[in-house]
Specification:
- The complex is a heterodimer.
- Helices cover about 35% and strands about 25% of the residues of chain A.
- By secondary structure, chain A is α/β, with parallel strands linked by helices.
- A 6-stranded mixed sheet of chain A has the order 6-7-8-3-9-10, with helices on both faces. A 4-stranded antiparallel sheet of chain A has the order 2-1-4-5, with helices on one face.
- In chain A, α2 packs parallel to α5 (about 135-145).
- By secondary structure, chain B is mainly alpha-helical.
- Chain B folds into 2 domains: about 20-235, no CATH class; about 255-490, no CATH class.
- Helices cover about 70% and strands about 0% of the residues of chain B.
- Chain B has helices at about 1-15, 25-55, 60-80, 100-110, 115-135, 140-165, 175-190, 195-210, 215-235, 265-275, 275-290, 295, 305-325, 335-340, 345-365, 375-400, 425-445, 450-465, 465-490.
- In chain B, α5 runs antiparallel to α6 (about 140-165).
- The relative contact order of chain B is 0.08.
- The chains are: A alpha/beta, B mainly alpha.
- Chain A: GO terms for molecular function: ATP binding; ATP hydrolysis activity.
- Chain A: Pfam families: ABC_tran.
- Chain A: Keywords: ATP-binding, Nucleotide-binding, Transport.
Chain lengths: ~240, ~500
């Protein structure tokens, strides 16, 4: 269970995020959508205690994230390249994350084996540093590293961006499999409405920091979101 | 169009994240530049009288010409090491409708404004004016000579880019060039074939036939055209403009396993050091600085002031500690959000850093044992300084690290590189180097040499015993500064 209460973030008087209350029950997969500047990454960063909320708190399984670090043991994330260590090879990076999450080499190897398809033979055994991989391949490494050590909460910022179509489809399957057991809470942000409605049971829509829609995904959700995001266009056409 | 390109350049300088933030650094760089300008100008003005004074009977201009080839080779060497063609800056312009030729010309002409081209003028012009004043040669001849000199300097400027372009990817290809220069130098040295003399005679000829000054200008034009052709042909993303990909080094540092739960961090730090240019060079510098003691120990002036030996001891055993420790945690700036969001307790992270530095102090202390040659006192001072470094200076440096807000690009060379340097680096130097010196000096003066050393030793041991608690306290401080650090490390600055 993740709870945000009275959460705001202001930069020089401008409010970039304002969420009065948001509950994410354990085992839910939640998709965060919104245009650039809607506050998606800000929300994730606050959930990871990387930026300080102006007011309010986030509780991750009853732990106040800004006061206690214990949430780190069961929470993993991939936000951007600053979560990768450029001078390591993908294998070394996985083992390092494995060490941090109390997984030995054999555990990590076993997990990596299940992602053979996802890697598409472009990641392992290439004798290349992460900094020399393409953006898409870096993303693959970051996403898989976030899954090491069966975390209870997984946070992925824009996981579909930069991935090739095959990998996007594989990633959707991975996320669906993870949420099937209803034990892992997954938070995803995306600009791709089709992908996100397909893998998430709940969609939260942010607009300039405000929570404007909170929907349980159904067949109508995609239409509703598309209508919302094209409203400016329709207004103009009508005028 | 050229005007617009220059205005871009202007903006990139004044809008860079670093400007204003590190005004102290700018002042320091300014002083360094002033120093070089003053040094070159003094040399330029003094050259004529010096030659008259020390080489009576020689014609100064002929003597300068005689050695000019040697100067040019030296200039080429330091330009090769220090000067770069800023080719990467034009990458974003590639897609815009600007002609290739124009951009290439811009980069090449911009290189003329380099400090390296300005400094020789400070010698050539005053020396030329002296010669005009002396009237040994006609004014026209001297002006022709000055033009030729400037032409040759600029030739070196462009020749350097050609050499860099063609040889930096392939250092081995440089061997024949270096060898042939060496052969020419040896032939010259043993007076078998004195190329420098012949070159000087060529320059002397300019004084007789001023029109010959056109030759160096022709050389500049040839080199310029060559650069132009070269750059235009390589103006593609996949050749010059892309950084090369190196095969990964896969040393695992498995021996660190014995350090238990800080092993993963130690491995990460060791990989960071060995696989990145800046930290790696820091290690080499530390080894070079082992020789620092020779300045003090062999010098009679310091024999009555053992406090200086303490300074040397702190420095020798702690040079890696200082060079590496002052930039903790900026080394990890590129992935600091990962460190903060992953399951990494700050205390362990800091303990691992302290462990690594301790290890370096021990190694440097062992490597400094040959100083036993200068007597057991010096040897003892070094050992006790090592203990003091481990016990007291390491926690001080880690604490100072919590003030660091500046990122470090791991792949840049550390020479003349002040990236990551802020007020912290200057201020922390005081307690680090001066405190032990002061403690030693006072006690040595008023009590005795032995008790002064004992006090330093005890301080070190106490620090070591309290280290765990100190690191706990420092970790709290890092936690408090966390958001500001993450924010600061995101900025890319010089």
């Amino acid at each position: 269970m993740i709870t945000a209460t009275n959460l705001t973030k202001k930069y020089n008087g401008t409010t970039v995020l304002n969420i009065e209350h948001l509950d994410i029950p354990t085992g839910q997969s939640m998709g965060l959508v919104g245009n650039n500047g809607a506050g998606k990454t800000t929300f994730f960063s606050m959930l990871l205690d990387l930026i300080q909320p102006t007011t309010g708190n986030i509780f991750n399984h009853e732990i106040t994230v800004s006061q206690n670090e214990e949430w780190k043991e069961f929470t993993s994330s991939f936000i951007d390249e600053s979560f990768l260590i450029g001078y390591l090879t993908p294998e070394e990076y996985f083992y390092f994350i494995g060490d941090l999450r109390k997984q030995n080499k054999a555990d990590v190897d076993a997990l990596l084996l299940t992602f053979e398809d996802f890697f598409h033979d472009e990641i392992l055994g290439k004798r290349k540093y992460l900094r020399d991989l393409s953006k898409g391949n870096q993303k693959k490494v970051g996403i898989v590293a976030a899954l090491i050590g069966s975390p209870k909460v997984i946070i992925l910022d824009e996981p579909f961006a930069n991935l090739d179509p095959t990998t996007q489809i594989r990633l959707k399957k991975i996320i669906k499999d993870l949420t099937a057991q209803k034990e892992t809470t997954i938070l995803i942000s995306s600009h791709d409405l089709i992908h996100v409605t397909e893998v998430c049971e709940r969609i939260v829509l942010l607009d300039k920091g405000d929570l404007v829609k909170d929907l349980m995904t159904s067949t109508a959700t995609l239409d509703e979101l598309e209508t919302y995001f094209s409203k400016d266009l329709t207004l103009k056409e009508e005028a | 169009m050229f005007k617009r390109l220059f205005s871009l350049e202007w903006k990139s300088f004044f809008r860079s994240a670093s400007l204003g933030k590190s005004i102290g650094l700018k002042i320091l760089m300014g002083f360094l530049a002033l120093y070089f300008i003053a040094a070159f100008l003094m040399f330029g003005i003094g050259l004529y009288p010096i030659i008259i004074e020390y080489f009576p009977g020689e014609e100064p201009l002929y003597l300068v010409n005689r050695w000019f080839l040697v100067w040019m080779v030296l200039e080429l060497v330091y330009r090769f090491l220090l000067q770069n063609l800023p080719i990467m800056d034009i990458k974003p312009l590639m897609l815009l409708p600007i002609k290739k030729r124009k951009m290439v010309n811009f980069v090449l002409l911009k290189s003329l404004y380099s400090f390296f081209n300005f400094l020789p003028l400070l010698i050539i012009i005053p020396f030329g004016i002296f010669n005009i004043y002396k009237q040994t040669f006609s004014t026209g001849a001297i002006i022709a000579w000055m033009i030729a000199m400037i032409g040759l300097t600029l030739s070196v400027n462009y020749a350097n880019f050609i050499i860099k372009k063609n040889f930096t990817d392939n250092i081995k290809a440089l061997i024949p060039v270096v060898l042939s220069i060496a052969v020419i130098a040896i032939l010259d040295y043993f007076k078998i074939f004195e190329s420098s003399v012949w070159f000087g005679k060529g320059l002397n000829a300019i004084l007789e036939f001023p029109l010959l000054a056109l030759t160096p200008i022709l050389i500049v034009i040839v080199f310029y055209k060559w650069n132009q052709k070269d750059l235009e042909s390589k103006f593609y993303l996949d050749s010059t403009l892309k950084d090369e990909v190196k095969d990964a080094n896969t040393n695992e540092f498995l021996w660190t396993r014995r350090f238990g739960d800080i092993a993963p961090y130690l491995q990460l730090d060791l990989k960071m050091i060995w696989r990145n240019k800046r930290p790696k060079t820091t290690v080499y510098i530390s080894i070079l600085f082992l020789a620092y003691g020779l300045i003090f120990y062999g010098n009679d002036a310091y024999q009555e002031m053992p406090a200086f030996f303490v300074f040397a001891g702190i420095f020798i055993t702690g040079i890696f500690m200082i060079n590496f420790g002052q930039f903790i945690p900026s080394w990890d700036a590129g992935y600091y959000p990962l460190i903060m969001a992953q399951n990494i307790p700050l205390k362990k992270y800091l303990t691992a850093k302290a462990g690594l530095i301790t290890f370096s102090v021990v190694v440097l202390a062992i490597l400094s044992t040959p100083y036993l040659y200068f007597g057991w006192k010096i040897f003892l001072i070094n050992l006790i300084c090592a203990v003091y470094n481990i016990g007291v200076n390491i926690p001080i440096l880690l604490y100072a690290g919590s003030f660091n807000r500046k990122k470090i690009d791991l792949d840049k060379s550390p020479f003349m590189n002040y990236q990551g340097t802020g007020a912290t680096q200057w201020i922390v130097g005081l307690p680090l180097l001066l405190m032990p010196l002061l403690i030693f000096w006072i006690i040595n003066k008023f009590i005795s040499f032995e008790s002064a050393l004992t006090v330093l030793f005890v301080l070190g041991v106490v620090g070591l015993i309290l280290r765990n608690r100190a690191i706990g306290f420092i970790a709290q401080r890092y936690k408090g500064q966390k958001y500001a650090m993450i924010e600061g490390f995101k900025q890319s600055g010089e």
